[in-house]
Amino acid sequence: MSFHVAVLSGGLSLEREVSLHSGRRVAEGLAERGHEVSEFDVDERLIRQLRSGDFDLAYLCLHGRPGEDGTIQGMLDLLGLPYTGPGALASHLAFDKPLAKAALAREGVATPDSLTISVMAFREMGAAALLDQAVARLGLPLVVKPARGGSSLGLRIVGEASGLPAALIGAFAYDNRVLLERFVTGVEVAIAVREGLDGSPEALLPVEIVPREGAYDFNARYSIGATEFFIPARIDPDATAACTEAAMASHRVLNCADLSRTDLIVDGQGKPWVLEVNTCPGMTETSLVPLSAEAAGIEFPDLVDGVVKRALARRST
Amino acid sequence: MSEFSLDPYVDRYASRTLEITASEVRALFAVASRPEVISLAGGMPYTAAVPFEALERLCEELLTDRGPAALQYTGGQGEPALRERLCEIMAEEHITAHPEDVVVTAGSQQALDLLARIFCDPGDVVLAEAPSYTGALSAFSQYQIQVVHLPMDGDGLRVDALVPAVKDLRARGKRVKFLYTVPNFHNPAGVSLALERRGALLETTASLGVLVVEDNPYGLLGFDGQILPALRSIDPGNVIYLGTISKILAPGLRIGWVLAPPPIREKLIMVKGAADLCSPAFNQLLTELFFRRYPWRDLVKEYRGIYRERMEAMVSSLGEHMPEGTRWTVPKGGFFVWVVLPDGLDAKKILPRAISARVAYVPGTGFFADGQGRNALRLCYSLPPPERIREGVRRLAGVVREELALYRALIGGGAP
Hints:
Number of strands of chain B: 15
Number of strands of chain A: 13
Number of helices of chain B: 14
Strand content of chain B: 5-15%
Largest interface: A-B, 48 and 42 residues
Largest sheet of chain A: 6 strands, antiparallel
Helix content of chain B: 40-55%
CATH architecture of the largest domain in chain A: 2-Layer Sandwich
Shape of chain B: globular
Oligomer: heterodimer
Low-confidence stretches of chain B: none
């Protein structure tokens, strides 16, 4: 069965480039499976265009704000147009790393200890004087990242306390709240959870991420050849099971829908720590979800076709 | 277990190719191309000023009279008639040139690539101003050239820095191949090499045995119409001159050229042929017709007026809005203002904040091969109209003030 799908990408998000790549690829995949596809680079004409287009569904390939944070989902709810991925509230929660971490921890999903600091705390309340305590609590190295936003933009791993202020300045350029997180040494893993037509979630095999040098930062993510991937991840069966369970739990706890990706670190004891959950995972040539689907024998067009069908089935139940 | 590589060819690339990576800055520029963002980043000429009706007539004439030739391959050195016109353009800058010594290229950018190719082995040194044109740096990096920057001041390149730098490099066994310089209305620094320094620069480079590559896209765009003599006009034997129509007509035609001493010219013709056989005949013949028929000096004059007004809008807004401790150059021509932010600020780190505030610039580090320029940035005023420039600078100043307050709270000790 084929549908008229509006693929939404681009916009003014700082992740615009990645989003455009995702959108392009998703549109091609859907067209290959016989859907009628219209692509939109999101701007102020969007709602008018969607209203006049007689669409069955919006496929969201919007990374970052305002696509992943619930804004667009709220608008589409009002418009009455079904869309892929979770609703406004769930999107908002999952996109906000501190909130998502708290929700996960409450449900027993392990996530590294962290602190959230707002720019106001520094500018108006002298929080700089508290950085020593933050370092004492979280240890070194520690991870600094914007509270919201993806693609590792603004992410820094700080090895020495003296480097912390500069890393904070870098992260605050992306968001007015920043997360300081304990650095967990271990194997970096991503797991996609995909819902079947009836909504039953299924975890794909864990992908192990090994940057050729340094951290899995923006350059390592999007420079072809800069990172090696192993599928399944080279971790023992117990750790694999624990990771899979953590990804399934994350998908459930954060009310993800259709398709999600959970990023984790497996520490030396084989314990998985959830770093973040993506409700609208990247679909570019260098993205992890399409890669793990491919390893599972799921062709890219079938992956996105499945998302469309599940999203529509979800609305009709 | 299987290992997945996203690029099955990854083990086959040349080592220099593996050095090309994705970058946060490039990704952020994807947003800067949206109309909501005031881009003071890319150095794009105001092509809306091109006399399109005249060009249209010339296109028609060209296709009617010489269609088959215009759509045919042509000689690698470039159309002879065009090379004559290019010599007329160079005469404006006091250069006496023979069309035989001109090689037409795809903009000056191809000339940079070809020169790097014929002169430099990996590890060879090219001298350049600090800062230097980012496109030249990327052309040089493709050939694994080491760029060594020489300081500038308000009068351009500091000629006194040449001798010690070259001696030091040679003492360390380095081969210095040429000096790359933009003497007029420098990109990105916005200053020109003072007249009295030009002779000294040429004497010094000649005595050191270092060739000079003079890149001169903006020489005719002095706001007061004053044209300084090109380096090539003073020392034809030791200067390779790069010209372009990109800033006096339009960059979309991709017509640039090299004027070089005959032995170098011969090498250039050969590598140019190997690179792309020839520059597009149609574009060459159209350009030739334009510079033969159209009063192009009037167009240059119009460009000067447009850019002067925009520069003034930018510089006055900078004065009005930027926080204390910010410095900038005041160009007398060309496209660019070089801004140095208060100590400690990092223009690259501020870029996401600026893009979110809907204004874009190029961080200073892009104009250095060695990581300098962190607290600097380049602003370009050539494309947006004056009111957009003023609004862009106002947004930028707000962003810099926020960053400064944060910097002071986090690093500079105490509240602002």
